[in-house]
Amino acid sequence: MQKLKQRWEIQKNWQLLFPILGAMLTLFTAYAIVQGFVNAFGFEGHNYEWPVLFVATPILYYFLVKFFIWCFKKVENKWKVDYKWEMIAIFIVFAITGSLSGKLADPLVHWIGLDSENVHSTIYWALRILLIFPIYQILLVFIGWLFGQYQFFWDFEKKMLKRMGLGAFFS
């Protein structure tokens, strides 16, 4: 436990929430991906469905953790954070925000009345992606605030919108 605290610069026990939550979400992600492959290849309901899940999920989890550690090292000097555990919180916020904005766009497009059955798929997906963008921007700051990273995400938003030519709103 001491090694974990040192590696992620954890001073208080409540900060352990982020590495634990990160590990749990990564495990869930690995399981969901493997489950998706099991369903895609028609293995569900077969005798070997669960053995495949139990073998492939930890293997994918291992590679996802390695990938995320590599990502941490890549952004470690770019992101201005006080402690390394904050990087885990930031990655979690990005993951939750991306997933949630994608999930919220579908009912919003449906509410507007532009289902994939009513309009051409190109128009449907273009509108859905256009809706995802503002939802994502709002959720990013809000969920960042919930995870105690408001200032990081507010600065991130301003920088991103300025690069897109929308910087006049923040002058």
Shape call: flat
Major β-sheet profile: none
> Helices and strands: which structural class?
mainly alpha
How much strand? under 5%
Question: Mind telling me the C-alpha Rg?
Answer: 19 Å
Q: Can you count the helices?
A: 6
Total beta strand runs: 0
SSE run: HHHHHH
Describe the protein in words.
With 171 residues, this protein is mainly α. The chain is built from six helices and no strands. Helix 2 packs across helix 4 (84-112). The longest helix has 29 residues, at 84-112. The radius of gyration is 19 Å and the shape is flat.
Compact summary:
This protein has 171 residues and is an all-alpha fold. The chain contains six helices and no strands. The chain starts with a helix and ends in an 8-residue tail after the last helix.
